[in-house]
Amino acid sequence: MMEAGNKVLLAWLAFMIVTACSPRPEGQAEDSGDLANHAIDFNACPVDGIERPLECAWVEVPAVRNDEGAGTLHIGLWRMPGAGEDRTALWLLNGGPGGAGSAFLEVAAELLDAGLEADIYMPDHRGTGNSEFLECPGAIGQPDLASYGAACSRELRERWGDRLDGFTTTEAAADLESLIARLRAPNQRVVVYGGSYGSHWAQRYLQLAPDQADAVLTDGTCMQEFCSFTRFDGSRDEALRRVLTDCADDPICAEQLGVGEDAFAVFRTLRTEAEEGTLCLPALPTLQAFDDLINVSLIAEPRLLPALLARLQRCEASDLDAIFAFVTRVNALYGGGVSPVGGPLPFPSFFTWGLSRSRGGDLVRTSAPRGAVRALAGPAARRGDLVRHRRGLPRG
Q1: H or E segment to which residue 257 belongs
Q2: Distance from the CA of 73 to the CA of which of 215, 261, 302, 311 falls in 20 to 30 A?
């Protein structure tokens, strides 16, 4: 799934790089003085599985640009050098919010292996990755998301005080502007790519520095006035219905999944079982774990959702091993995450149990880019029955 997507991304980036040739809000200060003049020193930072040379740096930036008394904080920055005398500076902005730049390492390596002449930069947004990290371990284990949000907010404010006000999209956009200015070679082309929340970040950057980059690309675009987590549940239901309706329209997929006229009924039944604690225990110990798994599937590869639900229905040992392999692979690609109610994502007891009972097989093959597809869909992926999806879903 990543290979095909990367070919599209490569073509898009290559076109924009070859052809590439709103004012700052009042009171938003630019970086100046010692920080703006500091050299950024990169060091070798090898990562397992990445064969290309990889560098990283920690860059000091103002914590809150309109408050000199707030001091500074550090931003993590990854760089994968390319080849060629006329290399473009390509900046990849991850989404989430909460995704670190390191999630793009495999993509960056594939782009350079495919011949893209660029130095690829991957900043860790404030609060993520190697940047000053935001976490609230004391809030883990709250009974619901609302309680978690309130507890996390209190914990972060107690720890950071007024400096917490610096963890904003605007400050992250100003970080990007400053980093590009400090690292750009004379007459070097600059292309910025942002996906999902990264597109929101890129749009804010354009408002602060409309003329700095030669091209800005947004993917899974999060429009500032229309992109909100308050719509997440409704959007997820819409995506689920579209995928399952496509399955119902496909005779083989419908037969495998047991979908009738109500394509959504299968999902509702499985979710009810998860809520009652009777679904694939101990693989999915909580309703939160089930919802996390569905969300991961919709974000990573929605075409695999029917195969995922079919395996949850059957729930044999081989099915659980395949689901575990799928989630392991997706976590490696997307940098994992934290379930505020259930603990580290995805489902720690599911991971431990699946690892202990795995006999190799699908699990050990997930290091390949298409490992998740093979692991979850199995023979169905070769027949094309459970993974057919004719209407592309927006990637968030």
Answers
A1: helix 251-257
A2: 215
